[in-house]
Structure of Acyltransferase 3:
Amino acid sequence: MRRLLQAGLVLAVITALITGPQPFGLHGGFWLAAAIMIMTVMLSYRADTGHNRTLIFLGDISYSLYLIHYPLMVLLMNSLADKAWTDNLMIFVLSVSASVALASVMFFYIEKPAIKAGKRVARWLSAPLTLHRSS
């Protein structure tokens, strides 16, 4: 079963690279992304992925990646689609690479400091109030 999932994952990733960016919605690109996600989750089930630095990094930047990937892909498609030297594969690879890079920057310079500040505020709000009695 594991070999079948690995082969399916490789096939789905190759298909994604060949077809390039897909329009937003419940067709083509969505189902391909869903298949890749499902196979990845199934392959990681009961696997020793706790120390895989790549997966930890992608998990850390996942929210920033979620926020940035679609606007960046649309921007690149609109600005590069009519250029003679670009094709769907090039736009797809560029959008994935740039999305991971920008998500990393967002995670380290926006998300982590915001989480740290939120923890400070939570500690401050949860600190017990001490009332001083005047003598």
About this structure: The chain has two domains: 1-47, 50-126.
